[in-house]
Design brief:
4-stranded antiparallel beta sheet, mainly beta, flat, 699 residues
Length: 699
């Protein structure tokens, strides 16, 4: 054991009766008197990327993970806004809140990062202002699975209407439709291949189906090269006076409560579900039932009433919950009697099957009395698996003899095919999306839910302690038990988990799934320290698997005022790549100063880790700086994006070349002043390069 050698100390701790390897791993330089073992012998199996993990100081990460910086090494001091990762982990789309090197759109910038050749390369994604006169971009509402094509909205200002645009890595695809001044669009969806685009609007856009909008009402349109086609038609092909009523949980494709797995619009775009009060007397009265309709075949198709006819009793309408991807089976909540088996007047879960009609799913018991908070409540009540096989709901009734408590929020599961109902546990309710503390696997076999009921402490296996604070729980059908994912082991609870399981507002609907496809791993954020390494007294991101928790963030970086907490943004279905946002410097080479870091985008990747970028080139002087943009940008830069930016400036003519010359002069003065000198010089080099290209190479 030589003096000055590096050793690893791994602490063992017993928590909850299980001995587990602490995530605290310290690299220490010790004398020969130390009793610690060398790093090479610290574990029976050496990670193939151990050298990078040691260089990063990330050996505490589980599964041989290492950090990779996805966003630009130099973002010009602007923070990352959000991101989404592909299923194979090879590409990420992200936004930067403000202009950034390589952006040609101005304002908020979008980039696509691709991992290849041992590096992440980012390229500008939004069309340039020369291609589309847009001052701002809304979130996209559709994307191809490989994140190369998108559909979103662009705006030229508050005085002009928005334009639906298809675009991608190849540039601007087409302008789908431009709306009248300040009329929307609002709820927006697209088919999986982006060929079908639907959105609600408060104006009369279809000359074949004119209507006089009542204040606050909307209609649903489909858009193509021929224009806008009203498709929220009633079964007799008339236009309902009330149209679609915005607001509340069950309004069409509400961006607060919708997920990509909910399927208001089928994946092929052939079927779309919409709610309407039709020609009701008072369009905004909750006494006027809101019905669900299915439109098949678009503008030339037909409309069918879903939640009817009522067999007996009062007509309460229906509230959409979930459809299968092809739109052939639709699940909704209703207090109406639509099935002879439904002899009660309380809420039940129904399934409408195209060509067959309605079936009451929860009428396995005389009165399920599904918790029904109403269409304008923010409190959810039930969830349905994407494949339609499992239904989860809460009820204050004891539906399984001897299990649950009358008057409590009891959580139940219905196996639709087997026609069985099982009690799961106490609950605080069920949320609809990861934005609200909930996630359900596509096959419905794993449920993750947020709850604070004290009665859950004894209901979990093993028993847990939530301290009356919201914690994250996991129920797996094949295990037949509920486990607390985020509860500290034997420690007092001071704070609960955030409501949002993920932060992803890059897209209009939620694509994030905070667990692996098989439901065995869950990713979440919590301010509670769950492992010994977590000492920063701030929010960190964790991974849970088989009862063990591990840090994904470092657990030691201080949370600076105004910088926000780390956010989980997504993971690949196998969980091998975890995408998250953090202002911590987790890799070498980031250009920003440590005094005021901004949010970066990282992947914690199994077997990952990349070499740091080369050091910056030596400063150049005068004409020696011309044409060097590509050579001075480090790995993970936007050389291609900058070139696109220069091309767009060249197309815009001599007037814009003059603006670039003026910008060069302004940046020269800024660099000479000594204030923010390094940053000003970087901007000056880029501006000189763009000006030279704009004028065909003249300086």
């Amino acid at each position: 054991m030589g003096q000055g050698e590096t050793y690893v100390r791994r602490l063992m701790s017993a928590r909850g009766g299980r001995a587990q390897l602490s995530r605290l791993t310290a690299l220490l330089v010790l004398s020969t008197a130390s009793l610690l073992v060398p790093a090479a012998a610290a574990s029976a199996v050496e990670c193939p990327n151990e050298a990078i993990r040691n260089a990063q100081g990330s050996t505490y990460l589980p599964d041989c993970r290492a950090y990779e910086l996805v966003s630009l090494y130099d973002k010009g001091g602007t923070p990352v806004g959000n991101g989404r990762i592909t299923a194979d982990g090879g590409a990420v789309v992200y936004s930067i809140a403000g202009g950034a090197p390589g952006s040609t759109a101005g304002g908020s910038s979008w980039f696509r990062a691709k991992r290849s050749g041992g590096r992440w390369d980012s390229s500008n994604l939004l069309p340039s202002r020369s291609a589309l006169d847009a001052s701002s971009w809304s979130v996209a509402f559709g994307a191809s699975s490989d994140l190369t094509r998108f559909v979103g909205t662009a705006s030229s200002g508050f005085s002009l209407g928005e334009t639906i645009v298809r675009f991608g890595t190849a540039g601007l695809d087409d302008l789908v439709f431009t709306f009248p001044v300040s009329s929307g669009p609002f709820g927006k969806l697209s088919s999986a291949d982006l060929s079908v685009v639907v959105a609600t609007n408060r104006a009369s856009l279809d000359p074949d189906h004119p209507w006089i909008p009542a204040t606050g009402t909307e209609q649903l349109y489909e858009f193509d090269s021929a224009g806008a086609h009203l498709i929220s038609l009633l079964p007799d092909e008339s236009v309902g006076a009330c149209g679609l009523i915005p607001g509340g949980r069950f309004s069409f494709a509400s961006n607060t409560h919708s997920t990509s797995r909910q399927h208001w619009l089928s994946t092929d775009g052939e079927r779309v579900i919409f709610p309407s009060r039709g020609n009701g007397g008072d369009c905004f009265s909750t006494l006027t039932p809101s019905h669900l309709y299915l439109r098949e075949g678009g503008a030339d198709g037909t409309t069918t009433l879903i939640d009817g006819p009522v067999l007996s009793g009062e007509d309460s309408g229906g509230q959409f919950i979930q459809a299968t991807p092809d739109g052939s089976r639709i699940f909704y909540l209703s207090s109406s009697s639509l099935d002879p088996a439904d002899a009660n007047t309380t809420a039940d879960v129904y399934r409408y099957t195209v060509g067959q009609g309605n079936e009451c799913i929860t009428c396995l018991v005389p009165e399920a009395d599904v918790t029904n908070p109403g269409p304008h409540s923010s409190v959810p009540s039930l969830a349905v698996a994407e494949d339609g096989s499992q239904v989860y709901f809460t009820s204050a009734k004891e539906l399984v003899p001897g299990e649950g408590s009358v008057g409590e929020n009891n959580l139940y599961r219905v196996d639709v095919a087997a026609e069985t109902i099982d009690y799961i546990s106490p609950s605080s309710g069920i949320a609809a999306t990861p934005l609200e503390g909930f996630s359900l696997s596509s096959d419905g076999m794993t449920l993750v839910f947020r709850a604070h009921a004290l009665s859950l402490n004894e209901a979990t296996s093993p028993p847990s302690e939530n301290g009356g604070k919201p914690q994250l729980y996991r129920y797996a059908v094949d295990e037949g038990r509920v486990s607390c994912v985020s509860c500290p082991d034997g420690e007092p609870v001071s704070e609960g988990v955030p409501t949002r399981l993920a932060g992803n507002d890059l897209f209009e609907v939620d694509y994030v799934q905070p667990m692996t496809i098989d439901g065995t791993s869950v990713f979440f954020a919590t301010p509670e320290p769950l492992v010994e390494r977590d000492v920063n007294q701030a929010t960190d991101i964790y991974a849970w698997r088989d009862g063990d928790v591990s840090l994904i963030t470092d657990g030691v970086s201080a949370q600076l005022p105004g910088k926000g907490s780390p956010q989980f943004l997504g993971a690949t279905p196998d969980g091998e790549s975890v995408l998250f946002m953090s202002s911590s410097k987790l890799v070498a080479g980031i250009a920003e100063g440590s005094a005021s870091p901004t949010a970066q985008l990282y992947v914690a990747r199994v077997g990952g880790g990349l070499p740091p970028p080369p050091p910056p080139a030596r400063p150049c002087v005068g004409d020696a700086c011309q044409g060097l943009l590509e050579s001075i940008l480090p790995r993970g830069s936007v050389a291609t994006g900058a070139s696109r930016g220069a091309d767009s400036h060249r197309r815009r003519g001599s007037g814009n070349c003059q603006k670039l010359r003026q910008r060069v002069r302004k940046l020269k003065r800024a660099a000479a002043s000594g204030k923010g000198e390094a940053k000003a010089k970087r901007k000056l080099r880029a501006a000189r390069h763009q000006a030279a290209q704009c004028e065909g190479g003249r300086s």
